[in-house]
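Forwarding these from the shared drive since the link keeps breaking.
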Amino acid sequence: MPNTPPNDAKLRADHAQTGPVHDELSVTVQMNPAQDDPVVGTHIGRSKVLQKIGEGGWGVVYMAEQEQPVRRRLALKIIKLGMDTRSVIARFEAERQALAMMDHPNIARVLDAGATDTGRPFFVMELVRGISVTDYCDQYSLSMPDGRISESCKISSKRSGGCRF
């Protein structure tokens, strides 16, 4: 083997004894990208988390599937692990409440909300496919000479937790 350390005889012997088990584990890890995100594949509320689709400063947005009473794809936003301080939770709950009260065709409706078994708040919205706000601004060169629109897009994207679907 190239780049093999000279004192690895014991490692080779150990691998020879347990090789098939290690080989199966390494294949599982390589073929399951959800291993990097412990939330993917779990159930939060009435939704099964399918994949991560966005991330902001303190929140993560996932594509999820409601399984009952109807089956549909949704967006689920949850506070990142370790970001569940009182001030962040208060901002998250304020955002959740503000979105829940909005009724506009260009704003995803909030459909459900709650907290996980560990107390992390979440809310579930309509899944709207499209590009991120910052990509939209860049694509259409939406900026003012002093850059206020571009900066506003970046701030809005951070506040919304990167809500692009």
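-- next protein --
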Amino acid sequence: MSSSSSSSSSSSSSSGRLKNAYEKIAGSVLSFGKPDPAFFLYAISIANKEHKAKYGEARDLKGNPSRRPLRVLHVGDSISHDILGASLANIDSCMITDHGVHYKELEQLKYKTGTDNIEQFQSMLSPPPVSNTREEIPLLMRVCDLCDNSGFPRPSYILESFQL
């Protein structure tokens, strides 16, 4: 069993290349990993069993069995594995942005020059004015733009850094 992703975008990763090579030699490969929702649901089922063993049957404030004994949040740094997988499994996700897969992309989106659409239109008619102003784009907007432009769902939450 491979731990590679079932997503076609994973074929550029080393686990995706290994999966592709093995498929050529041996036929089919069972993939079980992010962003496959089964990966997340399996982890949740294990957590539910451990929670029930430690705390017993979950109950609401009235003493009735609870339908939702656990609150689940997947934390990761990849929109194509972590955020997509959590979305497919219908659980909340939190994207960490200060390191990892998309750090450089988010840094490149951090600043824009001080021009707007009117200035861009006017620049077609005459040479544009020189502008050295740089406006910082908020992290939330950069993550949303990255997700939207890449065709992936947006995370439920965004943290710039994470420390224990």
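The beta strands are 73-76, 92-96, 111-113, 134-136, 157-159. The chain is about 40% helix and 10% strand.

- D.
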